[in-house]
Design brief:
The chain is of the alpha+beta class. It is built from 10 helices and 19 strands. The longest helix has 19 residues.
Length: about 350
């Protein structure tokens, strides 16, 4: 990047629509210096929603300039063959990203250009995502997080995926020409699906399938738990047993579907919309949850290492509590008062008895 080039000044001008064409050309030259990998990383970090101003306010002449910038950016990103390479996975709201404001701004500029004409993006992605894959087996890729790790990812169609700790998702290197299919092997995820009536988004997890056109919702399928749950924030979700398509639920915002492993039943229950994927905001609501269930939740989200000692009755104690933006230590302290137990830390493990 050239010395003396103030990215933030150019960013503010571009966002307000006051960046002269000659300065836009200079900005394009700077972007051309990025490697394909850097361009792709910036692209995904912004999740396609950095700004919407340009689309609504650009003049026809400026739209042509932005279209050219968009196409040049796409050529840069596509140089790494994004549908055939392992996914670039980025931490969910990493602290270093905001500290390095110049990098954040540089990537935002790139997204300002690509979000300038969403119609152009739709056409280009349609040609990439929906091209039939003939005479070639589609390779499946994996996204996986460890306990205490959260990550985000954006699919080629613009659908956003957020993974909580200890989660694993499989997806094709290229979507088919009829549906967009992914698999959730385990864990907890939140999906904001890009609407496409012609290509339903289908998620398989355990014995359950979820079918949507465009909506946002969370899915939880943890090994050892008695059920699989889907909670809807926006749109509509069809939730059904993959072995029996007649056994299904249509879920609306403010409701969640539960599939019980034991009796293979589907249930529908109300859920506060603000509680959907609360883990993304470090918010946890426990309703009649056992201590063991709470500790496991903290293990998944924060990487809490724990050991329960003493009577087995302790692990079965039930709690009703809501935590918002609290540390693990403060949550354990409150739970110990409510449940009349003690705990201490030995090395990196919390001993509870």
């Amino acid at each position: 990047m050239q010395a003396g080039f103030d990215i933030n000044v150019y960013l503010k001008k571009l966002a307000s629509g006051s960046l002269p064409e000659q300065e836009l050309a200079h900005l394009q030259e700077i972007l051309d210096q990025l490697t394909p990998e850097q361009a792709a990383a910036c692209w995904q970090q912004q999740q396609w929603d950095a700004f919407q101003l340009t689309e609504n306010e650009a003049t026809p002449e400026r739209q042509l300039i932005l279209k050219d910038a968009w196409e040049r950016w796409l050529q840069k990103v596509n140089a790494v063959e994004p549908f055939e390479q392992p996914a670039i996975i980025l931490p969910l709201q990493p602290k270093w990203w905001k500290r390095n404001s110049w990098l954040y701004a540089a990537c935002t500029i790139g997204v300002l250009m690509v979000t300038g004409l969403l119609l152009v993006k739709d056409r280009h992605h349609s040609s990439l995502v929906n091209t039939p894959v003939a005479q070639k087996e589609v390779k499946w890729l994996q996204l996986e997080t460890a306990a205490g790790e959260r990550r985000s990812f954006i699919f080629p169609d613009g659908t956003k995926l957020y993974l909580n700790g200890d989660s694993k998702v499989e997806y094709p290197a290229r979507f088919s020409d009829s549906t967009r299919n992914i698999k959730i092997d385990k864990g907890e995820v939140y999906l904001d699906v890009r609407r496409d009536k012609a290509h339903p988004f289908v998620i398989g997890t355990g014995d359950i399938k979820i079918r949507v056109l465009g909506t946002s919702f969370s899915i939880r399928n943890r090994p050892g738990e008695k059920d699989i749950s889907v909670a809807v924030r926006t749109g509509k979700v069809t939730f059904y047993d993959s072995r029996n398509n007649q056994h299904q639920l249509l879920l609306l915002p403010g409701f969640k579907g539960i599939y019980q492993h034991k009796d293979q039943q589907l249930l529908q229950l109300p859920v506060p919309i603000d509680d959907v994927a609360g883990w993304m905001r470090n918010e946890f609501m426990f309703e009649d949850a056992t201590l063991l269930e709470i500790l496991q939740t903290l293990h998944y989200s924060y990487g809490l290492q724990y050991k329960l000692e003493g009577s087995s009755a302790l692990s079965k104690k039930r709690f009703k509590a809501t935590f918002r933006n609290r540390s693990v230590s403060s949550m354990l302290q409150l739970l110990s008062r409510m449940g009349d137990f003690i705990y201490y830390k030995r090395d990196s493990v919390f001993i509870i008895h």
